[in-house]
Write a structure and sequence with these properties.
Length: about 300
């Protein structure tokens, strides 16, 4: 049976062509196959696997995975419980299946990624997921999904899995998009160098005056370089939002100490009260501004 369904799911018509109508009926009757969705059969021992459910959803709807389901299929996040999301052209009306959420779009589906199952490209699936997470009237899981999508966007840009200009272009293609303004604001921050939610919080709530340079590179005498989370370049004050205090291994802490010593030799001072990971304790970073003002003679 696995030869007929190597991916765990297939259209009933295709399985019938590869065998016979009577064989498929017998397999369904005997429990060797399960009718997961109208016209789609799956192997019973794999019916609860998320990848098989996703494959079945795309076969039934005849459209690619989208939103957070597409991000999960790409391995960027764990699948969330609940229905699988797919997108189809607006002229199609697949209905009546609670296991699948079908999004209809007037935009061209365009090229897809992957094969089993196919999924929308990175920028589009991120923007679609963002819009869904900011549309609580249509999506009862919006509040839960919102921080997940934010993290995936920041991490995706940082890992170069998606480009900011591609995301902006996708936003421009969707004039009616939930959360458009905060998305564009986040893209500005990520494009400016923020690589984590903590850095975003630091820049938007803490690093006020004078304006720091994000992801500033300092070349050491050894020829190696250090990328600072933020830096008051004129005052030579470095701000690390994730420093030695948060590195678990002794090797990491020793490396950070050597880096700090090398920076000090070049005249750099490090903010002595860098924030803890908890947003509630970011306030002490304001002390760094006092250091900057002293160094600038203000």
């Amino acid at each position: 049976m696995t030869d007929l369904l190597p991916h765990g799911a297939g259209r009933r018509g295709d399985v019938t062509l590869a065998s016979s109508s009577s064989s498929v009926s017998r397999w369904l009757r005997d429990g060797d196959l399960v009718l997961a969705l109208p016209g789609v059969v799956v192997l019973p021992d794999r019916a609860q696997e998320w990848t098989v459910r996703a494959r079945a959803a795309t076969l039934w709807a005849r459209g690619p995975l989208s939103h957070l389901s597409a991000l999960a299929a790409a391995g960027l996040t764990d699948p969330l419980p609940g229905p699988v999301h797919v997108t189809v052209p607006a002229g199609r009306y697949p209905r009546g299946c609670p296991a699948v959420v079908v999004h209809r779009t007037t935009l061209p589906i365009g090229p897809t990624e992957g094969w089993v199952p196919a999924r929308l490209p990175a920028a589009r699936r991120l923007v679609d997921a963002w819009g869904g997470a900011h549309s609580p009237r249509r999506n009862t899981q919006a509040e839960r999904e919102r921080p997940v999508v934010r993290h995936l966007l920041i991490a995706g840009v940082g890992r170069r899995e998606v480009r900011v200009d591609h995301v902006r272009a996708e936003v421009a293609r969707q004039p009616v998009l939930g959360g458009r303004v905060p998305l564009l604001q986040l893209l500005d921050l990520v494009e400016g160098g923020c690589q984590s939610e903590l850095e975003v919080f630091g820049v938007t709530h803490v690093l006020r005056i004078p304006a720091p340079v994000q992801q500033h590179r300092v070349v050491l005498p050894t020829g190696r370089h250090v990328d600072l989370d933020a830096a008051y370049v004129q005052a030579r004050v470095a701000v690390e939002l994730d420093g030695a205090a948060f590195h678990g291994s002794s090797a990491d802490r020793e490396r950070d100490t050597r880096r700090d010593t090398a920076l000090a030799a070049l005249g750099w001072s490090k903010d002595p009260r860098a924030p803890h990971r908890s947003h509630a304790r970011v306030g002490p970073l304001h002390g760094g501004q006092a250091v900057v003002r002293r160094r600038l003679g203000r």
